[in-house]
Amino acid sequence: MDALLLIDTDDASYTSDENAEILVDIVGRTRTVGGVLIFASTKDELVDVDDEELSIFVPDEEDLVLRSEKPDVFDGIRDLAPGLHDMGVDRIVIAGGDVDTIEALDDAEDESDDTSDDTDAAGDNDDAGARDLPGSVRASAMAALVCNFDVIILSDAVIDPEGQPVTWLGEAEEAGAMVKKTADTWLRM
């Protein structure tokens, strides 16, 4: 069985109306067949927001609504993977706003510019790892693979903070994820 995992689809993170319209169909299909629909937020500022306001798709009482303190929702919500396996979910279809990707890179570049001559005892730049920080969708997709789920990333429904397509889909395919357009994705329930 499939679960549709929508990460950071609040109106501040999921800024593309075109991408939102693409997701409306698959959210509707998931609800129509009684599928598992998960709304996850990785943003601190949304911790106290009502569930109905967590996504532009307005979660209802049948949906799972989760808040993670980490970009990887499987790490931030420890019982998520075992719970989904217990429900019979073996494939995660994932989309949303990859909120940390550009911000993390910008921060890392700014810090790197300020400390480019600073190295640690091993000769490595202290900020080198910051360049590799994944956004919430990428981190969660990779974690889902590690948690033994098949993963489909909806290529036309994952956007960066600027509302543009993400650039890491090839790396996700190499790691074992399938990358598909939303219209070409059929949910197994």
Question: Can you walk through the features of this model?
Answer:
- With 189 residues, the protein is of the alpha/beta class.
- It contains six helices and six strands; from the N terminus they run βαββααβααβαβ.
- Strands 3-2-1-4-5-6 form a six-stranded parallel β-sheet, sandwiched between helices.
- It starts with a strand and ends in a 9-residue tail after the last strand.
- The model is unreliable at 101-108 and 115-131 (pLDDT under 50).
Please state the overall shape, judged from the principal axes of the Cα atoms: globular
**Mean pLDDT, rounded to whole units?**
85
Whole-angstrom Rg: 17 Å
Percentage of residues assigned to helices? 25-40%
- Write the element-wise H/E pattern from the N-terminal end onward: EHEEHHEHHEHE
Structural class: alpha/beta
Number of strands: 6
Distance between termini?
5 Å
Stretches where pLDDT is under 50 for at least 5 consecutive residues are 101-108, 115-131
Largest sheet: 6 strands, parallel
Range of strand content: 15-25%
Give the oligomeric state.
single chain
Q: In order across it, which strands form the biggest sheet?
A: 3-2-1-4-5-6
Q: Given the structure, what is the number of helices?
A: 6
Question: Which key features would you list for this structure?
Answer:
alpha/beta, 31% helix, 6 helices, 189 residues, 6-stranded parallel sheet
Present the secondary structure layout.
Elements lengths: L1 E6 L9 H16 L3 E6 L22 E4 L5 H4 L3 H7 L4 E7 L3 H14 L21 H11 L3 E10 L9 H7 L2 E3 L9
Parallel strand pairs: 1-2, 1-4, 2-3, 4-5, 5-6
